[in-house]
Amino acid sequence: MGFLKKYKNIIEAAIEEYKFTDQPAQLYEPMNYILHLGGKRLRPVILLMAYNLFKDDLKPAVKAALGIEYFHNFSLMHDDIMDRAALRRGKETVHTKYDENIAILSGDALLVKAFQMLEDLNPALFKPCFQLFSHTALKVCEGQQYDMNFEEQNDVSYGEYIHMITGKTAELCACALKMGALVAEADEEDAENLYEFGLHLGIAFQLMDDYLDVFGDYEVVGKKHAGDICENKKTILYILAKQQGNEKQRAELDFWFDSKEEKTEKIHTVVKLFKDLDVDKLCLELINDYTEQALNCLEKITASEEKKQDFYELMDYLLIRES
Question: What is the pTM of this model?
Answer without folding.
Answer: 0.94
